[in-house]
Structure formats: C-alpha cells, structure tokens
Amino acid sequence: MAPNALAFTPATEEDLPFLLALRDATMTPHLVRAGAAIDEASQLARIRYRFEHAQIVSLKGRKIGLLKACKEEAQWYIVQIQIVPECQGQGLGRQILEHILAQASRDRLPTALKVLEGNPARRLYEKLGFREARQEGIEYLMVCHPRLAIV
Questions:
Q1: Alpha-carbon torsion (11, 15, 20, 22), positive or negative
Q2: In terms of DSSP H, where are the helices of the chain?
Q3: Mind listing the pLDDT tens digit for each residue in 119-136?
Q4: Tell me, what DSSP letter sits at residue 145?
Q5: End-to-end CA distance of the chain
C-alpha cells in the first residue's frame, strides 16, 4: 500500500460519533464566522443529509475523514469533504478531489460543490479548476468542468 493510499468505506450509524466530532473539528469555526447553526441537531441533520453517499475515509486503518459525492444526471456533486485537522495540509484533500474529478471526466460531466464564505478550502478548489458559479446565501456554488484526455 502506498504511504498515502486512502481507503473508502460506506458510513454506518456506528460512525455517527466520529462524524459529529469530525464536523465539529472541521466546520465549527467556519459556521460560526458565517452565522450558521452549530448545535448538535443541526450538525447531525447535515451529516444525515444524503447519508447514503457517505464514505469514511481511512489512512493506514485510521479514520481521517468523510467524503459524500454522488453522480447526478448532469454532474457529479460533492456534498461534503472533511479531513481531521491533524491530517490537513498533506495533500489528502487534493487526492480525494482528484479521484472524483477523474471519475467525472471519464463520465464527461462537470463536478460541483458548495463552499462556505471564508473557508480556506476554497483555495484548493480553485487550484483544481473549480470556479465560482454563484453565491447562495453564505455559500458559493463552484463548478469544475471535465478534463478531457489528450489523445
């Protein structure tokens, strides 16, 4: 296994305590800054949103994050991506995003996601080719067009 080989497994109800802690650690500062709700019920509702697409991201057998991404009729949509703070800045988020972007390119579909205003992850999204499509309240919808292989 490569040093940064990530594993993805479907999330289950047993993962909820990890997911709540992950969301608190990764999103609370951004939600507070944006004036959004941070109570446990609001956080749990966000975790359960499209939970059927939730995958626990692991590195060397340790849970390090969450990915929720799904193929829709006209695009791939990244619902959530979160990595524990101590594993951020190591290229893992880029690795996860590039995996989804590669699949979207094979499907010849754009990839969309939303990012909270002021979230520093936006810089990574822009480096990978995401561009702001529109503002939706405290979030920005960003879209990355499929990368076509050169033959």
A1: negative
A2: 16-34, 40-48, 92-106, 121-127
A3: 888 999 999 999 999 999
A4: P
A5: 30
